[in-house]
C-alpha cells in the first residue's frame, strides 16, 4: 500500500499554522492510521486481478455445468415429449380406426335400410300395379258386358221394331185387301 501524499509536507504545513512538532506528527500519524483502516476496508471488498480471473473461471465453469444440465434436461424432456407424442399418435390412430369402423357400420346399416325401403316401395308399387291391373280388367269386363248387353238390347229393339213393322204391314195389307 502506498500513500499518495507527503506526510512530512503535511507536518510542516501544520507547524506553520501553529501546531507544535509533536502535535503535527500525532495528527499526521492519526490521519495515516485512519487512511490505512479505510484502505483495509476497501481492500477487503476489492479483489485482485488474479482473484477476479479465478472467480470468473469458477462462474464460467458453473455456467457450463448449468448449460450441460439444461441440455441433459432438455434432451430428457424432449425424449419424454417424443414418447408422449408417439403414444398420442397411436391413440389417435386407434380412435381413427374405430371411427372408420363406425362409419362403415353406419353406411352398411343405411344401405341395408335403403335397400329394404326400396324393396318395400317396389312391393307397394307391384301391389298397386296388380290392383290397377285388376281394376282395369274389371272395368274392361264391365265395359264388354255392357257392350254385349247393349248389342243384345239393340238386337231386341231391332227385332221388336221389325216385328212391329211387319205387324203394321200385315195389318195394313189386311186392310188393303179388305178394301180392295
Automatic annotation (TrEMBL):
Instruction: Name where it's found.
Output: Mitochondrion membrane
Looking at the record's lineage, which domain of life comes first? Eukaryota
BP term (GO), one: calcium import into the mitochondrion
What keywords is this UniProt entry annotated with? Coiled coil, Membrane, Mitochondrion, Transmembrane, Transmembrane helix
Q: Which InterPro entries match?
A: CCDC90-like (IPR024461)
Any one cellular component term from GO for this entry?
Answer: mitochondrial inner membrane
Principal subcellular localization: mitochondrion
What parts of the sequence cross the membrane?
160-179
Belongs to which family? Belongs to the CCDC90 family.
Quote the protein name from its UniProt record. MCUR1 regulator
Source species, please? Answer: Psophia crepitans (common trumpeter)
Q: Which gene encodes it?
A: Mcur1
